[in-house]
Give the backbone structure.
Amino acid sequence: MRYLAVLYLATLVVFVPIDLVFLGLVAKTFFAAEVGDMLGPIRPLPAVLFYLLYIAGIVVFVGSRGLGSGQTLLLGALFGLVCYATFELTALALLRHWTWAVVGVDIGWGVVATAIAATAGSWIAARVGAGG
């Protein structure tokens, strides 16, 4: 149980800051240029719920398997691809102003960020949380 708690917290601590940097630097201008008329203010509760649930998904479907770092990186990338593509392709299918450029950038980011967070979280948990 301790291992899973450390894995969850480590993955959260890795994923959230890198995602916030991406959102603040890349996405802010890029998404505004692509679909700016659809953007509104950030709502904190849904954002927090996303992070809590997404990290749980990474832990359950990737990190808790105790695989080597190469396999964790690959499964993290695959999990990111599936999750981000689910949203992006649905948005592209339903929303008038959604663009292929947004789809490509966001899915690519989801793949990279999830792979990094899953691998780093597992690495940290193996060292810190191995006692339980």
About this structure: Helices lie at 2-35, 44-61, 69-94, 100-128. The two ends are 6 Å apart (CA to CA). The chain has one domain: 2-128.
